[in-house]
Specification:
Elements lengths: L1 H18 L3 H4 L6 E7 L3 E3 L6 E9 L5 E3 L6
Parallel strand pairs: 1-3, 2-4
Length: 74
């Protein structure tokens, strides 16, 4: 009976320990850059700011250049 009680206490302790974990450790946070509209000047989409989420139409205006670095996720 004492053995069952010890196991029960250990299980309860572990359960409460897991419930107190911050959610940031359990769910990965993905930082994204949202883009939409006109690109009027030269712009570089960098790997550091990746992924880029095109939420609406994007237009690169005449005279502007959009450079997307290797490895950037769009």
């Amino acid at each position: 009976m004492k053995r069952k009680m010890k196991i029960f206490v250990i299980i309860i302790t572990l359960a409460f320990s897991l419930l107190n974990l911050p959610l940031e450790n359990l769910v990965p946070v993905v930082k994204a850059t949202y883009v939409e509209g006109e690109i009027r000047q030269d712009t570089v989409w960098t790997l550091v700011d990746s992924p880029f989420v095109v939420s609406k139409n994007v237009t690169v205006c005449t005279g502007a250049t959009l450079t997307i670095e290797p490895g950037v996720e769009v």
